[in-house]
Structure formats: C-alpha cells, structure tokens
Amino acid sequence: MNSNLSKKKLQDQEEENHSDDCSSGSSFHHFTHTYPVVMKAFLEMKCGGGGAYCGPVLLAMSGEAQDLRHLEELTGESPTAERAFNYRLSLGVTPMGQLPKPIFWIQTETSPLPGCNVNILCHGWLQDLVFMLFKEGYAEPVDYQVPTGRVAIFSIANMTPESEGVYICRTHIQMLPTLWSEPSNPLKLIVADKPPKPSLSAWPSTVFKLGKAITLQCRVPHPVLEFCLEWEERATSPKFSVDGDFIISNVEGKGAGTYSCSYRIEAHPNIWSHRSEPLKLMGPADILPKPVISASPPIRGQELQIRCKGWLAGMGFALYKEGMQEPVQQLGAVGREGFFTIRRMEDKDEGNYSCRTHTEKRPFKWSEPSEPLELVIKEMYPKPFFETWTSPVVTPGSRVTFNCSTPHQHMSFILYKDGSEVASSDSSWASLGASAAHFLIISVGIGDGGNYSCRYYDFAIWSEPSDPVELVVTEFYPKPTLLAQPGPVVLPGKNVTLRCQGAFQGMRFALLQEGTLGPLQFRSASGNSADFLLHTVGAEDSGNYSCVYFETTMSNRGSYLSKPLMIWVTDTFPKPRLFAEPSSVVPVGQNVTLWCQGPVQGVGYILHKEIEATSVQLWGSTSNDGAFPITNISGASIGRYSCCYHPDWTSLIKIQPSNTLELIVTDKPPKPSLSASPGTVFKLGKDITLQCRGPLPGVEFVLEHDGEEAPQQFSEDGDFVINNVEGKGIGNYSCSYRLQAYPDIWSEPSDTLELVGAAGPAAQECTVGNIVRSTLIVVVVVALGVVLAIEWKKWPRLRTRTPHSSVLLWTNISTSVTQGGSQCDEMV
After folding, report:
1. Helix or strand or coil: residue 114?
2. How far is the C-alpha of 649 from the C-alpha of 378, rounded, in Å?
3. Which residue range or ranges hold the Ig-like domain (predicted)?
4. Each residue of 414-471: pLDDT tens digit?
5. C-beta neighbour count of 650 within 10 angstroms
C-alpha cells in the first residue's frame, strides 16, 4: 500500500479527527455548490507503465448511483451536487449533519491480474476534502489523500492475492474534522487468472521500403515466458519469441498483412494472454500520406464533429475506434477533409479514434492511420463568446483583433490556431464585470490564416472550446466568378442559388454579403465550384454578394474577392437608363451607340423604337452588354427610343422601360434662344446677364457682339455677364453653340438681342467731374468780374480804353470753357 504519511502520523490524525458522535450540530443546508458533478465514480486499474488494463470484478450498482440515475430520469437534467444531496435527504438516505457518501464503483467485468497496479478513484462532493481508504479487517485506514479537487486516487502497486479484499472510502472536511461523510459502497477486489493484452508496434514504421524489413515489437511491463505472433492471413503459422521482437521481410510482397500478438507468464505457462490490437503492415505502393485527426473536447449529451484532414483531393475517409476492426463511419469522396459526427456524446463513445484516407476508385489504396485521438468526456464551463472585430476575411497587412469573453469573472484565456496554443492572457482580476481577452495581430501575413478558437479556465476547471473563426487571408489566388441561378432578380419567398466558380479543385468556399461582418456560409468542394442556397429570400436579403475560395492545408491562403453581384428581392425589375454616345444629335453619315445600362448584372437588354404614338417595335437584336450601335446614320434613324431588361430565364417579375431618348439627325443643330436678365436696358452701375439656351445637352456656347466675338467668348452653361463701362455694352448680340462630341459643327445663330441704356459707371464719374469743374470756372469768372468792376470805379482812366481788352478777356474765358467741354467729350 502507498501512503502519503507514515502510519503513526495517520493514526494520530485519525484520533484527533474522530469523536464519539460523527454528526456535529452544524447544518449542511448552507452547501450551495452547483458545478456539474461527475456522475460515475469508478475503479480504474492499469498495469504499471504498459498501459494495459487490469479489469475490476463486476459488482452491483451502488445505492447512490441508482438514486442519481433515478433523479436524472425524473428531471431530465444532469444532477448537481446540491440536487443530489437534497434528493437523498428527501428519501431519508442522507441524515442531516453528514456529508453525502462518496461515489466509488467499477466499470468492467474483468478481474485484475497478478503484478498489475490498481488505481481506485473516490469522488466526493466538495473541494479540499480529506479522503480515507478503509479495508475490511483493518481498524485504521490503509491510505488517505488530500487532493485539490473532488477526486482522490488510491494506488495499490503490484497486485497480489494479499491485495484482495473489500474496500470503502469516506471523506471529512479539513476545517471540520468531526463532519464525516457516510461510508461509500464497498468494492471487492479479486485477482483474475488471464493476463491483459500486450501492445504491438512496428519499427521503423508500418510501411515496407524496398529491400528493408520491419521489426514487430510485442511488449508488456512485466517478465514474460514467451511471446506469440499471429498473422491474420496465415493463422496456421504463428511465430514465437522470448524478447517479443519479430523480424518481418517483404520478399515478393508476402510480408504485408494484419498481425497481433499474445504472451504467457512463467507462473501460468498454460494460459495465454488476451491478443493485442491488430496492426497492419503495408507495401510501399499501397500507402498514402498520413492524415491529421482533430476534434473539440467532447461534452456529454452534445454533438461532436471529428475532423480528418487529408493531403490529396477527391479522397474517401474512414473513422476507426480502438478495439474495433471495421470502420465506425465512412465517407465518400468529399475533398481534402472529411467530418465525422457523433450525434450525442455518451460514455460509450469515449476511447481512442484514428482515421484513414483512401482513393476514390477500387481497389482502394489506403493511407497510414492518423495519430490516435483520445475522446474523454470532462465537466467544463460553457464555451466563451469568440469573434473578430472586423470581417475574418482580410487582405495582407490588415489589423485583426480576436475577442474572447465570458460572463464568469477572473478567468485566464488561451488562443488556439488549428488546435495549437498560440497566445494566452492572465486572469482579469481588475475587472468587476465579465472577463474578456483581446488577441491582436497587428499586420496579417499569408501564414496567419487558419482556424482560431479560444478557451478560458480557472485553476483546474476549463471551458468548452469556443466556436471556431476561420481567418482567411486573401489575394493569393485568382478571383472567382459569382453567378446567380436562375438570375439575380428574385421574387420574395423564392430560392436563389449563388455559384462561386474558382480556379482550383478541392478548395473551401465562403459567401459574403456587403454590410455583414462575417461570411454567411462556408462550403467544402471536391471540384472547383460551390453552390450557396439562399432559402425563402426576403427584402433583407437584397444587397451585394461576393465570394472567396481558400485552401485548408496551408494557413487558409485565399483568393481575391469575386466581383460583387447585386441580388434584388423584388417583384419589379429596377428601371434601366438609356443614353447616346457620343451624342443624341448626330450628323448624317456618322456613327452612334445607344447604351442601355442598369444595376442588374448578368441580364440582357432589348431596344425599342416608337414608330407612331401608340406603336412600339423591336430594334434589331438583343444585347448582353447593353450596347446598340447604329452606323452611317441617316434620316431613317430619327425617332424616340427606350429599352428594358431581357432576362434569359422564365420569371414573373415585372419589367419597367427606361427613359425615352430622342435621336436627332441634322446637318446643323437648331438655333438657341437668347435672353437678358434682368432686362435689355442698362441701369447705372448694374450688369446684364445674357442667357443662351439650346435644346441639346453636352454643348458649348459662344456670344457675338455686333457681328464680332464678345470679350467673354465661350461658356459651358450659356451665361454671359455684360457691363456697360464707357458705354461699350450697348449693341446687338447673338449666340450659337457647338456639340462637344462634334466640335466642328456649329448651330444656327440665335435671334438678335439689342442692349440699350445710359452710359456705365465710368462715364457717369466723368460727367460729374466736368460739372464740378465748370461750376468752379463760373465762380472764378464771377469773382474776377466783381474785382474788375471795383477796380474800374477806382481808376476812371481805364474807362477811356478801347473795349478790345475786355473782349479779348472774355474770349479767352470762353475758349477755356470750350476746351474743358471738349476734354469730357473725349473721355465719353
């Protein structure tokens, strides 16, 4: 027996913990632990080091196991510790003041063999309990454990007949040594007489190489008298070995086949052990690369997908479970990877699994088995919420942030890529709310693509894995093509299929919608295309869709995104637009193209021409790109045109015509109109805007003044601002235009428009100046006349003079005034 403390220390501890009354006065009703409990305690016995099982003897199911199973049948829920304890109280099984008795029972019907190590597991109902192992006939416990969890493991090394007997387990709380549990159900160990199966392996591998032999190694962890190797294809020719090594050659291809081995021990030379698991040896031409098997941790009662990833396209897949010769599931050719489903994970589904791939056509060529995958159901926290803050389909160099969160506080988080840990974070002790971790890739590279997931944990309890996020790094492969079947315009409530056509086979495809964070759907395909079904579409399904394809074996390297495809969920086609290029006014003999364009892609168009007011005819053939060329145009081309969609599938969707376009054929375009705003009469200090307007779009206007080009010669909008500085705005005006598409062809000139009125601001300033100067001259003349009159009275002698001087003086003055007037006229 293994003991953690010496027998003396154990005895002292027990004397201190025992009392006359195991039931203390404390109430157990404060116990509120609600973690999911392990529903089976069990007896696990393994041969030391070898991994072969030594099975326990079969006993009846314990009372508490029956109670728990009954409780589960009544409620339909997995019992918690609190529910189980309350249920047993209601039955009067567990007295108040005692801990529930631990669970402690067996799984198989095989008894342990001599020399085996036996591990007995005792499951309590609280953390940090003291577990005691008692054996019938001994007053003191034979072993005890103080584990950190709720399970204690008691080991019995090297089973002998002296190890046989009846065992029980009890628990008590460390801080309350007087509060004991009821004794567990008893377990009786009996040493059996048939040795367990050995292991069989091949060195250097299970595949023969040319001219090389393979050594099969049959192994057990204890002394053996003799080993025996059996060849399934030649059962009558066994081989024997003392050391367990068997050399197999492949001369003439006769070494390939299925082998197993057994052994006998010296104590029982007439009893052969159970046979090992079969091992298949294959020739060099019969093998394919080994696949990779993976799965999320299994959860009791939930669906589990097992992923088998091969390396070649178009392979079939087979899933094997240890201990079973035939595959438990098989899949046909589904591409480079296959997914096996266990609908509801139960205890019977636990075990080691492997997968193999094979060629599509018979006779099959098989791969080596994958590495084994062990599925064990564990109690866990619920899975976290896992997402990217942006779309998981990214271009190289993008910034990606993964967010992993849970309502539970103070958790640590781990980020996984393709099942391997790539990053971790410490527990969020500083946060009072929900725990979360953010994992950042600053600049995504081609090698960063893959399947990401996360988990959280505290101490010994882990969560389920999150749902995976497939990070796809694009711009490595050419872009695919996305088409809608039957068409991109769909009636509400109907189905539409979007086909993404790539350039390579065996890829995985994703469908994206503009405005949606992540891909809508994923599809794996053995060919080079994948179909995505939009079922019973509604108005919310309208929008731009695109797709991408990527490989799953090389970090999700993806293609460029396809060209967006607009899906319309409506009962009426959107209205197209009809226009002419280069212009709807075309000289005789020139060419013109009528374009019918609309937002719906992948739909043909049809052109109509009005012959009479109520008559419509088809103009030529339909067009897939919306172009209708008309060459060497003549007068027969004149008319009004319209167009509409011409879908190539049967549909009840209404079709609307486009706008009407009038095609004009002429030597010269019609003359424009010319008007003045606010009028044709200039007012002092105000400008006049001449507005030249034509009947056609896409033209350039020119203005003429009295037969010559005006200072502001050209205008695209037809507006010309005229001022009357120095009276130069007055006169006759006309305008014409030319087509931008045909710059050498001018229209007829417009009707003449005359602008009249007073001089402009500069002339007004000149007139005011002349008036001021004339007034000053008059004042000066008057003043001089007064002065001369006074002087004349003072000197009488001047009166006798001839009047010539006076006349001359006035003549000079008049000349001066006249000269001043001549200068103003010149300015005007």
Report:
1. coil
2. 55
3. 196-261, 382-474, 478-547
4. 999 988 889 988 765 545 566 899 999 999 998 899 999 999 988 778 888 899 999 9
5. 7
Q: Look up tokens 């794996």; give the residue.
A: 524
3-class DSSP state of 796: helix
> CA 187 to CA 169: how far, in whole Å?
9
Can you tell me which residue has the tokens 């086949």? 257
Alpha helix stretches (DSSP H) within 375-458: none
Q: How far is CA 480 from the centre of its chain?
A: 18
Domain parsing of the chain, residue ranges: 7-189, 199-284, 289-375, 385-471, 478-569, 577-665, 673-759, 773-827
Q: Measuring CA to CA, which residue among 111, 104, 109, 119 is closest to residue 58?
A: 109
d(CA 727, CA 143): 125
Outline where DSSP puts E strands in 478-556: 481-485, 489-490, 496-501, 508-513, 521-524, 529-534, 543-550
Domains 385-471 and 577-665 share a fold: yes
Two tokens at 741? 């598409």
Other beta carbons less than 10 A from residue 428's beta carbon = 21
Domain 478-569 CATH class label: mainly beta
Q: What is the DSSP secondary-structure string of 652-707?
A: --B------EEEEE-SSPPP-EEEEES-SEE-TT--EEEEEE-SSSSEEEEEEETT
The answer regarding whether domain 7-189 maps to CATH 2.60.40.10 reads yes
Place of tokens 């031409």: 285
Q: Which two tokens stand for residue 707?
A: 């037969």
State how far the Cα of 454 lies from the Cα of 437, in Å rounded to an integer: 10
Look at the domain 577-665 and name its fold: Immunoglobulin-like (2.60.40)
The tokens describing 595, both together, are 């374009």
Q: Which of 683, 645, 641, 638 is nearest to 664 (CA)?
A: 638
CATH of 199-284, one of 2.40.50.140, 1.10.3210.10, 2.60.40.10, 1.10.579.10: 2.60.40.10
Q: What is the DSSP letter of 780?
A: H
Pick the closest to residue 491 from 417, 568, 411 (CA basis).
568
Cβ pair 558, 476 in contact under 8 A? yes
Give pLDDT tens digits for 78-118: 555 455 555 555 555 555 567 888 988 664 444 555 566 77
371: phi then psi, degrees, rounded to nearest 5: -60, 145
> Considering the entire predicted model, what is its pTM?
0.40
**Integer angstrom CA distances of residue 478 from 394, 501, 558:** 15, 11, 9
Domain 673-759 fold: Immunoglobulin-like (2.60.40)
Whole-angstrom distance, CA of residue 588 vs CA of residue 585: 10
Among left, alpha and beta (phi > 0; psi -120 to 50; other), residue 727 is left
Under DSSP, is residue 798 helix (H, G, I), strand (E, B) or coil? helix
Two structure tokens written together for 330: 């098989």
Beta strands per DSSP E along 105-207 = 117-123, 129-135, 143-145, 151-156, 165-173, 187-189, 199-203
In whole angstroms, what is the distance from residue 343 CA to residue 360 CA? 26
pLDDT at 620 over 60: no
Neighbours of 391 (CB within 10 A): 15
In whole angstroms, what is the distance from residue 471 CA to residue 449 CA?
Answer: 5
DSSP letters for 726-770: GGTT-EEEEEEEEESSSTT-BPPPPPPEEEEES--HHHHHHHHHH
